[in-house]
Amino acid sequence: MTQYKLRSYQGITPKVGEKVYIDPSAVLVGDITIGDDASIWPLVAARGDVNKITIGARTNVQDGTVLHVTRKSEHYPDGFPLAIGEDVTIGHKCMLHGCTLGSRILVGMGAIIMDGAVVQDDVFIGAGTLVPPNKVLESGYLYVGNPMKKSRPLKESEINFLKQSAVNYLQLKDEYLADMAD
C-alpha cells in the first residue's frame, strides 16, 4: 500500500522503482527517478523542477536532506542536474545541489555539495564538509572540512563499510515496508 504522495511539476511526476520506501513526510516534486530498493526518509525535500534528479538503486537519503538542481541557461546549457549513484548513504540534513555522485559513497551528516561538483566512487565525505562548486573528489579518499580538503586514503575496512552502510539501510527500509503492509 502506497502511503506517500508524488507531486507533478509541469506534467512530470517522479518515477519510483521497485521496493522503494518513501516516508510520508518527504516531498518529491517533478523530474525525479528513484532506483529499486532505495529509501527516502522523513522530511527529505527533492525538487526536480528546473532540471532532473536521479537516485540510484539501494541508495538512502536520510532525514532532513535537501536535493535540488540548477536550471539550464546561456552560461550552463545543461544546467546542473543532480545524479546520485548506487549504494550511496546520504546522512541526515545534507544539501546536494546540482552535483554528481558516483556509487558507494558516504556523505556525512550536514554536508553540502554544490553545483558541478563530481564525487567519484568509493568516497567518504565527513560530517559538515562543504564541497565547493566544480570540485572533483577522487575515488578512495576521505574528504573533510569547510571548504573540503582531501584528508587521507581510505582503509580497506572503510571501503568495505561503504557498501555495508547501504546494506544496513536496505534492511531498515524492508522493515519499514513490512510494517506498512500490516
TrEMBL record:
<protein>
    <submittedName>
        <fullName>Gamma carbonic anhydrase family protein</fullName>
    </submittedName>
</protein>
<dbReference type="Pfam" id="PF00132">
    <property type="entry name" value="Hexapep"/>
</dbReference>
<dbReference type="InterPro" id="IPR050484">
    <property type="entry name" value="Transf_Hexapept/Carb_Anhydrase"/>
</dbReference>
<dbReference type="InterPro" id="IPR011004">
    <property type="entry name" value="Trimer_LpxA-like_sf"/>
</dbReference>
<dbReference type="InterPro" id="IPR001451">
    <property type="entry name" value="Hexapep"/>
</dbReference>
<dbReference type="InterPro" id="IPR047324">
    <property type="entry name" value="LbH_gamma_CA-like"/>
</dbReference>
